[in-house]
Design goal:
Radius of gyration of chain B: 20 Å
Strand order of the largest sheet of chain B: 2-1-3-4-6-5-9-7-8
CATH superfamily of chain B: Thiamin diphosphate (ThDP)-binding fold, Pyr/PP domains
Number of strands of chain A: 23
Distance between the termini of chain B: 50 Å
Strand content of chain A: 15-25%
Helix content of chain B: 25-40%
Shape of chain A: globular
Number of helices of chain A: 20
Helix content of chain A: 25-40%
Mean pLDDT of chain B: 95
Structural class of chain A: alpha/beta
Bound molecules: thiamine diphosphate, iron/sulfur cluster, magnesium ion
CATH architecture of the largest domain in chain A: 3-Layer(aba) Sandwich
Oligomer: heterotetramer
Radius of gyration of chain A: 26 Å
Order of helices and strands of chain B: HHEHEHEHHEHEHEEEHEH
Number of strands of chain B: 9
CATH topology of the largest domain in chain A: Pyruvate-ferredoxin Oxidoreductase, domain 3
CATH class of the largest domain in chain A: Alpha Beta
Number of helices of chain B: 10
Structural class of chain B: alpha/beta
């Protein structure tokens, strides 16, 4: 039995075979024991791709630790995989650690002898330790009786045994998960699990032990989209309008279940344009509202975002970024909607863009978005991404705000976004900002230019004034921004700057580099537009400043965030990581890149 | 807060805000006055009324009504109105939209607005032309009419707004003309009283760009559809030479059949009670057992 | 009689009274005589705003010169105005030169004695020379017989006399313009004109003489949108799909008349989304196509622009910018769609953005847009603006290209846009780029990510490769770009940088400053994304670099183009002119600002 | 260039490209095979065929047909198809679109595509659900069906695609089911032969997310509309227990009346000759006296 304090493993199966469900059950058990977990599902692009093809790769990557973890990490130490095709496919991603143990089910070897041998050789050549096994005959019989279902329970059994999880403890989670299953089916599933548990695929000596800690605080297990949906409710938003799109849809699904129970309304619109229109209508009538979408939907909403700016009707838009452009890679991650969010609507339409990095951010971002949107009366865009939206994490049970009057937003929420309270005297283009129902305050709003009375005006001065007033709202937000907390050194050779979901990787990479004696700092932004003042001062404390973005860049093309920072600070900010490969940034990759960069500039 | 509901009856003057800036003779003036008249007759309070429009000459109405209002973007008044309906169901909503705004860029929202049957009065200002952008072909432009976008004549037959609305599943479909004052106000009245999405097609004069669209000086070409119980009375004062046809607005088949005679027939074409989306959604919330915010995270605790 | 070589005047009337028509007739006569003209119409925001209100201001600002003029200039030397309300309104814009002569029609004075006196006093106080007049009774009678029409002909007569234009010569233009009018009405119009001509509103001594030159080349009189429409045809584009929107509509109107006669097709779509879809469909089928719109339409097209990028189907979008955001100021000018054009679509969708500054650019931009769009297989966005679209100018008859095969584009067209020929070996994401109809080359395109075979691919490497290949197309354009010609000094104290319609003002201001001994240069870009390489070298030859943009900016907010330049060059580029007042930039204002700027930095 | 028109007849194999990746039992497979069969029967050449789709499970069809194809963006296949039709009218166009793609986000284009009546075959894959995005309510989802976006059941009655198409002025409206092989191919055949926008509604199975939508194992619930001259024959092989109703597809009133029985009736619902926008536009150009490019600027010379 080997004691572990940090471990990553993955379970890979054909889509539809329940790998994620098995992973869920397992991590719940871990989490309950006090182990920190981070789980990233691998989801195929098709609904049910044909089995035994590379497209069918589905599964869960799970990272365990006895201290808090912020990201999925770099490499897996162990893999349990259903058949040779999935292994072959996943080997390409080069995410296995040296000496990684691969548990390979030989169930399909009969019909693919050569392919099996080829992949086994490939894995061995790469230095991995392939351990093959077969599902026991009794288990196979039970699986057959379940029409081919249940293999995931066998695998779960193997893993549970491997991690020395108490069998009955784990069975209680199986029961909880499958509580809607008829008793006989449930029993078969449990039996299969037990067969797996007892299969002795690995020697006991090789089994692993995670000693959980006893948490002081209650813990919750949440993925980003669920956290965001719960945050919407806690933030007092009472209308959600949306149109389905991967990876934003699950926000709608959660709210469809939850909102009515909290007095709110869920509206599925005919398209993304309509959805944001309904949000604006609701806000005009005085009810805080939100919509969520992904890239293509953001493009469609641009015209209405402009109306929100001009008419000073608040609105909140969540954009869960995916791989792009166009339909792109709906189930891969990227950070390339930054400009579309900040600058996408025609004309000069100042707005605020906030990004999220993790489950906590997702829960609190609706609060701060609502606060800014309502106090400044403008659109606020929240940038999440595929990776954040689907990754689960165990966190302290989140402190609720139960926000009602936005002016009374909790300090700890503002702090979380490195923000002070906004000034009470932000000027509006239009003086009267009342909602329907209030007598003697009737008013009309429009997307045309207006003066302070709200009446249409075409004069040069009123147009300029309107631009100025709107821009100054953003400046007011800017003045309220504090500098985000920094990781690592306060000055030195290199500053890694990022936003959104790169936070965990930056934090971990900086930590590790600093431990190795490298003089590096990390700065991560939640608010991405506007940026806090005095950035230049901070940048100048480092010899070099680089960004970490999941976006393409090269020597002739600055990545979006680096472009913003270059313009803002006139420092030669380069993209250190400017790759758009659809997968989250590995801390180890970041460390290597940083080291290589420093070596290069030191030699230059 | 003055209790305006009791103290101050709404007058025509109360409903005025800034001065309209339409062309002389534009039917939009008549619609504006008709709407005010209707509000006064029904004593609909200004603060509880929202006029919502897209873009077009027609889109200017909200500016001229001293109620709440949104002059929004082209073709998108319906989604906004729905947001208001779901947020504050007690408000009275009037949506104003041109033939281009409704049936060209806004067609999808109109389809879904009609289908959702949420509570509002929808006024389609049909001047058979793009007014504000200066005279391009609209979806209701008569085939053959030369316009700047089709100098040798509009290419195809116009969309029939009535068949469209019926095909989309409308619960209330009426057609009127702004120059027939009584008929217009009565139509608004019937539309307002109908629960759901009340689709009102309005023949509207655009003397500037499409004077030949509606022959308002003659009335011999038009027929009123009347039904003693449910319909809208003929307006013999405004249209003395009009024919009158007895017609029941309760039959879908009748309605589809008569829609072929649009735009020569005026009156209530169809009316049926249908479930309303806004009510269904709000009732669902109302009937749901309400949870305590403190329990929000309980299901996720491990 | 005073000889003039440079003069600006304006005719202001209630909307609908024919001021622009009168202006057109007059400038045609001037142009025929060899005088250079530049005319900017003043168009009210409503179709027919109520007469005798400030909203009714309509007219034509006309600049005359005996050498080529590039912009409308700064101030008017003479104004002919129909009544006191219009004068009052127009005085606010402060566009009259000191000592400007104001010819004020007293026709409405009876009913507005006080207002007249007030405005006359105001004008006199401002140092203007108010000359009032009354339309003669005979002319009034004729106007009455024409239902109030024809007053513009009287004014035309006054102006023609004032400018010593030959009466019969001018009448020939009236006849040409009103050729569709019944004979009796035409005659009345001419008679009214003659009454005006003979009215002797000004002394003969005060009359003006422009001695035209005899042009060597044939000349054409064109506004920007007409030039663009003609360019579309000359560039071999054979399908236009669009949806009406001010100020882009007149492109469609011209093409509706012209395209069918040149074998093309004009399609009015149901909305802007559909219009660009049809352009993409046409291009996929092998027929070059274009759409034109304005801000709100650009926002709606963003999703399809992304499809064009990803599927490598070319498309060309013209955006005639107006005041924004949202519906904004549809009949005012602004340069604020730059970011929406370059970065508006979600994801990373590299495309090319070209701007135009004048009638020549408008005519040739379709050629170069087609060239780049087809050689690189990506979307090209053309940025014009309200000011360019409606302003008329006399230019040498444009040399036609009659472009068919884009690879054979004329050098002079590329030169016009400071561009070399593109490399012949630009890599595409997809190898097969054939059009339907070609046997054995069948292919499918998609907005999803693909490999070089065109098949959908989700792998990390293929996504990164696709980003790289698309970005390199832009780099290929970049490598082909030459530095635009510079005005004024090649190095020195200050460089004024602009793009789009600010060209004329920059050129004139730099000329004037250089003449005054100020060490300043001007650099104006047609291609705005990407920018040519080695900008930094040029910027570093000047002590200061500033931009000239019709866009709001302040100390906390860089204007869009300055932001691009800052990021690109890391030079501290500031907005010198960062105003969004809806009116074109006056050369004189630019001169003053430049002088003030230099004074400030020299004292600092 | 091989003269493929003469030498190589199109075979089923020719039409295959990459392997489909739908769920087992998905009706999209049957549509794919039916389409290929129809192309082989009619010997439609691959290079002259363009399959155009939006986004959805249905949207994948172009990838699997070895013709030209565009898998475009959600709801926008029609504008692209129209561009192709105007650019190269000799091409054969098939548009593939799901119920969400067609009637939710794409409703406006569908209205205008139908109205323009340009030449194409439009296949509406109706599985009454959003397949690709995993099971949200679509505009044709049966009222009451619980979905992730409406856990307590879809709120409103579905849109009736047939009434919608008729209301929009369609010239050809048919309804079929993918599991009725012969009926399906015959319907495609009739649609293809009809000049104009041929609207084909297809009942499509989605075993993954909406297995209860279509009861394909029984056929007693369905009725074939048949007409000896113009209709599509009943498919007694695929639907042995179906009723057969004699029906003339030439009457608009009939069509509107029968549309109430959708989705239980199958066959040709309506067919009429209507002017085609693509033809009108192209003819206008053809009939216009062509000008010489050299004269382009002449009108602007001063
Ligand atoms: C997205 C967008 N596209 C186009 C326009 C330009 N536009 C304004 S109104 C209008 C059509 C007006 O016609 P209609 O709806 O019939 O209204 P009317 O003016 O005739 O009352 C158009 C195309 C716009 N404002 N926004
Ligand atoms: C603009 C945009 N919005 C949303 C989506 C997400 N999306 C993809 S397919 C689809 C609906 C699929 O349903 P349907 O059209 O019925 O096709 P099916 O999958 O059932 O064949 C949606 C909402 C998208 N790709 N683009
Ligand atoms: S253009 Fe037509 S619709 Fe518009 S204001 Fe003038 S008359 Fe009325
Ligand atoms: S989800 Fe439904 S429609 Fe999509 S592939 Fe699977 S069975 Fe077919
Ligand atoms: Mg209209
Ligand atoms: Mg579907």
């Amino acid at each position: 039995m080997q004691k572990k304090s940090n471990f990553r493993f993955e379970l890979l199966m054909d889509a539809g075979n329940g790998a994620q469900k098995a992973g869920d059950i397992l991590i719940k058990a871990f989490a309950k024991k006090g182990v920190y977990v981070f789980i990233e599902p691998i989801i195929p692009a098709e609904i049910s791709p044909p089995k035994r093809t590379p497209f069918s790769l589905s599964g869960a990557v799970i990272r365990l630790s006895d201290s808090d973890i912020t990201n999925i990490g770099s490499f897996s130490d162990l893999v349990l995989v259903e058949h040779e095709i999935l292994l072959e496919r996943r080997l390409q991603d080069q995410e296995f650690t040296e000496g990684c143990t691969i548990l390979l089910d030989l169930g399909s070897k009969k019909r693919a002898q050569d392919a099996y041998e080829a992949v086994e050789k490939k894995a061995a050549d790469a230095g991995y330790n392939v351990v093959s096994f077969m599902i026991s005959e009794e288990a196979e019989a039970l699986i057959k009786s379940l029409n081919g279902n249940g293999k995931n329970m066998y695998y779960l059994g193997i893993l549970a045994c491997l991690f020395n999880v108490d069998k009955d403890f784990l069975i209680s989670f199986i029961k909880q998960t499958f509580k809607k299953l008829p008793k006989d089916k449930l029993d078969s599933n449990i039996q299969i699990f037990e067969f797996g548990f007892n299969a002795q695929v690995m020697d006991e000596a090789d089994s692993l032990l995670f000693e959980g800690i006893t948490h002081k605080n209650e813990k919750v297990l949440l993925d980003g989209n669920t956290a965001l949906a719960l945050g919407v409710i806690d933030a007092g938003i009472r209308l959600y309008a949306g149109y389905p799109i991967t990876p934003a849809s699950s926000i709608m699904h959660s709210l469809a279940r939850l909102l009515p129970a909290y007095g709110g309304v869920l509206h599925q619109a005919e398209d993304e344009i309509s959805a944001i229109g309904t949000v604006i209508g609701s806000y005009f009538a005085g009810v805080p509202a939100i919509t969520a979408t992904s890239g293509p939907g953001l493009s469609l909403k641009q015209e209405f975002i402009g109306l929100s700016v001009a008419s000073e009707i608040p609105c909140i838009v969540v954009d869960v970024q995916r791989g792009g452009p166009s339909t792109g890679l709906p189930t891969r991650t990227e950070q390339t909607d930054l400009f579309a969010a900040a600058y996408g609507s025609h004309g000069d339409g100042p707005k605020v863009v906030i990004s999220v990095a993790n489950v906590d951010d997702c829960f609190y971002v609706p609060h701060v978005a609502r606060y800014i949107a309502e106090v400044c009366r403008l659109p606020v865009i929240i940038l999440s991404d595929y990776m954040i939206s689907v990754s689960y994490r165990v966190v302290d049970k989140l402190k609720q705000s139960k926000l009602d009057d936005v002016r009374k937003i909790d300090d700890f929420v503002l702090d979380h976004f490195y923000m002070n309270r906004l000034s009470d005297s932000i000027e509006m283009v239009k003086e009267n900002q009342n909602s329907p129902g209030i007598p003697d305050q009737m008013r009309r709003v429009t997307g045309l230019n207006t003066g302070s009375s709200g009446a249409i005006e075409y004069s040069a001065d009123s147009n300029h004034r309107a631009h100025e007033v709107r821009s100054k709202k953003i400046h007011a937000v800017r003045h309220a921004l504090k500098m985000p907390e920094r990781f690592g050194s306060d000055s030195g050779d290199l500053l890694l700057v990022g936003w959104g979901s790169s936070r965990g990787a930056i934090e971990e990479a900086v930590q590790s580099l600093v431990n190795d004696g490298v003089d590096v700092g990390g700065l991560h932004f939640k608010m991405v537009y506007p940026l806090p003042l005095n950035l230049t001062d901070i940048f100048q404390s480092y010899k070099h400043v680089v960004t970490v973005e999941m976006a393409y860049g090269d020597s002739l093309k600055a990545t979006p965030f680096s472009m913003m920072l270059r313009s803002e600070t006139l420092c030669d900010v380069q993209g250190l990581i400017c790759e758009a490969k659809g997968r989250p940034i590995k801390p180890i990759y970041l460390i290597e890149k940083a080291q290589a960069f420093l070596k290069e500039v030191q030699h230059a | 807060m003055p209790n305006s509901d009791v103290v101050n009856p709404v007058t025509m003057k109360d409903l005025k805000s800034s001065d309209p800036r339409w062309c002389t003779g534009c039917g939009d003036y008549t619609i504006l006055v008709g709407l005010r008249k209707f509000m006064v007759q029904n004593q609909i309070f200004r603060e509880n009324t929202v006029n919502i429009s897209g873009i077009g000459c027609s889109g200017r109405i909200p500016h001229y009504m001293n109620t709440y209002g949104i002059h929004s973007i082209h073709g998108r008044a319906i989604p906004i109105a729905l947001g208001i309906a779901l947020a504050k169901p007690e408000l009275k909503l009037f949506i104003h939209s041109g033939d281009g705004d409704s049936l060209s860029i806004g067609g999808n929202h109109l389809l879904h607005g009609i289908k959702k049957n949420f509570n509002c009065v929808y006024l389609l200002f049909d001047n058979q032309i793009y007014g504000l952008t200066k005279s391009q072909t609209s979806p209701t432009t008569r085939q053959g009419l030369p316009t700047p976008s089709h100098p040798s004549g509009a290419m195809i037959e116009p969309i029939n707004p009535i068949s469209f609305a019926l095909g989309a599943g409308a619960s209330f479909v009426a057609t009127t003309a702004e120059w027939m004052g009584n008929h217009f106000v009565e139509t608004l009245d019937a539309a307002f009283k109908h629960p759901g999405f009340s689709f009102v097609h309005i023949a509207q004069r655009c003397p500037k760009f499409n004077p030949s669209a509606w022959n308002f000086q003659d009335s011999s070409w038009l027929t009123f559809l009347v039904d003693e119980q449910a319909g809208i009375a003929a307006d013999s004062k405004s249209a003395p030479d009009a024919k009158v046809q007895s017609y029941s607005p309760h039959s879908y088949e009748n309605a589809m059949a008569i829609s072929k005679d649009v735009p020569n027939v005026f009156g209530l074409v169809y009316k049926a009670e249908k479930p309303m989306y806004d009510k269904l959604v709000l009732d669902a919330t109302k009937n749901q057992k309400q949870k305590d915010l403190d329990d929000l995270l309980n299901d996720y605790i491990i």
